[in-house]
Write a structure and sequence with these properties.
The structure is a homodimer. Chain A is an alpha/beta fold. In chain A, 36% of the residues lie in helices and 15% in strands. In chain A, helix 2 runs antiparallel to helix 3, helix 7 crosses helix 8 and helix 10 runs parallel beside helix 11.
């Protein structure tokens, strides 16, 4: 069995105006759908980040993939997948999916998932069963809350309102969370911060705790918006709220900054774990993160960490070093949803619910035949279908691809959206507070 | 597909009187052959350590395995396979395979290999292809040299001479190595030390270097026979000989002792890596070994480290921490040979040739249909046969099992053999020198 074709479909997915320290989400998130076909007529699908950079990396790996046996993934990893050893790999200034230093790793990851889908279909087995079997039968995700402006994304004929409305206060955030928990059954909560004044974000977390109680662990992630001083202040203020299953994620920029926040909190007797997907973006970051104490919970990602097997490796590594492991998310469609769910289910050490932006997208823009992936009690159940367990609706792929080609942008730029809609002089400043 | 039967065949394999710091090998090495059968009639084979302890652990895991889907290995690992977290896991005083703290891990490992063999046969693929594919097509092994008495093992009617003869001097060791390199094509050399006076072992390594030149990396492993002082002396004396692909393996007992040897050698500007399978026997040992500098090369083992996937995890972990990784061996048959070869081929980071006792066993005691595993240029080539790529010769299994039942011992005891044949007062003393 050899791979005989590799097709790349850039797509645009309506996205609401979510806010973060990077700025404001554009009306469309860019993604890429990948389809591999084998000489036996088996099809493997995958999903990757979107835009020109992602597409160029996929085009570059293509000649190595066409003709290859889909089982021979180590060879592709060794030839092409490993990230560049030199240079800053942090995502302090780059949104995930835009870091040129892991571009090849991300392309490898996309190919790996499609190959595992093929292998699963060829053997009649779900992907998770090919990777050691299920450490759990369902992948738990958290309610991923965002401050946001009103609106559900899209442009012109496509424009639509969303069911979430504007959310720029602690009170409306509690409402957003109640709705999300009601609809999806999430049991853990993560707030994207770095948007309002820190005191308001502290207040948001407190109101969430008051509304949901300590059975719902709470996390906050301001994407490096705070100084060390402010990070420590938030850590002290939310000492209770972020304990027991909670964490403080990337409060400040750089490994050194993170380590200093940790040190100062520990000195004050506060053991809130520090989580990161900004300071730790690749395997080479784990040892310094561990040595300096900068990170206690690493956010994996089956896309930019280099595939599902690398998420397993990362989980084992973290488990061994006494670090926790969770999973990062970007805006994504149902293909990535299942890649993430399989990755979680084959990683015994992954004991924090994973992030997902999935609730922010809608049925209207799903590329899966049969519609969106279902959640049960906040988790995605891995069934018995072969491979990733999904099929593409090619009409939907074509529609989103057509839309992609009409868009004027080829790269995520949340700062530009801020200048367009919120403040013409907006710049990302770190630390902002 | 479910596992419907689990049969355990203890076997005895003729073994020459090899020497180490543990004493002298008995005339038979004890091993266990495991055969799983599925409801679809597929057979999976495996091999484990031998004797009563091993058998009891296999009997204990059996009820969990019969009825299980062979793909669901993580569940078995989480329920049963993980080693005990408490207590000393070192092998300073226990030969590998006799440590009660990893008894369950070893039983899990045996089941994992048999399940992978089943999965491979069910899918028509070699085991290595189910684990990410080949990082290399052949697994390189080293010439594993032993000081020894004359004789090829066996008892009474079974007694036979071997082609190797007595080897208790530097000069005869060069002859042993020349023969082994000629017959197997090995490219790296490991000497089991801790037997003769350290000056004689230093002289042995020097004569090996003189005979083979620097293209053949050299290692020496006295299994903790030396004090820190003697270890440093050997390290200094063999500074050149153990560099560039060589290592000093377990010269002294305990993590602290190893760390002190390393520190003192570094102070003298000697960077010879320290390797270990005694101080590091499980994942929990890696972090202290790394932190203290006690170990630079970890010797994995698909048996007591908990299977092939755990060797992959260990390799990735070592790679990430900047440690090297190789593979430990016990006396074994062709089934373990292939388990070890597949484990090596799916571990990209394994860049040292692995250990194997295989040259010390003979065709006469092989349990594989078609005879012994072949070596090409010191390596075992992974072919395209499904699973482990082997079939059992059940007549041979029956013969070795019958022999096992006639033996008076159920446990490896190299010290007892010393008392019987060499010195009635022999005790293992650490450090001996």
């Amino acid at each position: 069995m050899r791979i005989s074709s590799f097709s790349i479909h850039p797509v645009a997915v309506a996205d609401p105006p979510l806010r973060s320290s990077y700025g404001r989400h554009a009306p469309y998130a860019l993604r890429t759908i990948i389809i591999l076909t084998t000489t036996d007529g088996i099809t493997g699908v995958s999903e990757a980040h979107g835009g020109d950079g992602s597409q160029a990396a996929l085009e570059a790996i293509k000649p190595m993939v066409v003709g290859m046996d889909p089982f021979q993934l180590h060879a592709l990893w060794m030839n092409w997948g490993r990230p560049d050893a030199t240079g800053d790999r942090s995502q302090t200034w780059l949104v995930p999916g835009e870091n040129p230093r892991d571009a090849r790793t991300r392309a490898y990851a996309a190919v790996e998932a499609a190959c595992l889908d093929i292998i699963g279909k060829a053997t009649g087995r779900p992907v998770c069963d090919l990777l050691g079997g299920r450490a759990r039968d369902a992948a738990p995700f958290s309610a991923y809350l965002f401050y946001k402006h009103g609106g559900g994304g899209g442009l012109e004929a496509d424009t639509r309102e969303d069911e979430w409305g504007e959310c720029l206060t602690p009170e409306t955030m509690v409402g957003q969370c109640q709705r999300m928990v009601r609809e999806y059954g999430f049991r853990e909560i993560k707030l994207k911060g770095g948007v309002l004044e820190p005191e308001l974000e502290i207040e948001t977390i407190r109101q969430l705790r008051a509304a949901f109680g300590p059975a719902y662990p709470l996390r906050i992630d301001p994407n490096c918006a705070w100084s060390v001083e402010t990070s420590v202040h938030v850590g002290v203020s939310l000492k209770e709220e972020l304990s027991e299953g909670g964490y403080l994620e990337d409060p400040t920029a750089s490994m050194e900054g993170m380590a200093e926040v940790r040190r100062r909190l520990l000195e004050l007797g506060i053991d809130t774990p520090m989580a990161s997907n900004v300071a730790t973006t690749g395997f080479d970051d784990i040892s310094p993160a561990w040595r300096t104490g900068a990170v206690q919970v690493v956010l994996s990602d089956p896309h930019y960490w280099g595939g599902i097997r690398n998420v397993q490796r990362l989980s084992a590594l973290c488990g061994q070093l006494g670090m926790g492991v969770s999973m990062h998310s970007n805006n994504h469609l149902g293909v990535s949803m299942m890649i993430m769910a399989h990755a979680c289910c084959v990683s015994p050490e992954m004991e924090f619910a994973c992030d997902t932006h999935y609730p922010w997208q809608t049925e209207q823009d799903e590329v899966l035949a049969g519609g969106r992936v279902k959640f049960v009690d906040g988790a995605v159940v891995i069934g018995d279908k072969p491979g990733l367990g999904i099929e593409l609706d090619m009409d939907q792929v074509a529609r989103l691809e057509e839309r992609y080609h009409k868009l004027p942008f080829r790269k995520r730029d949340d700062a530009e959206e801020m200048r367009k809609h919120v403040d013409p002089a907006w710049q990302r400043i770190l630390p902002r507070w």
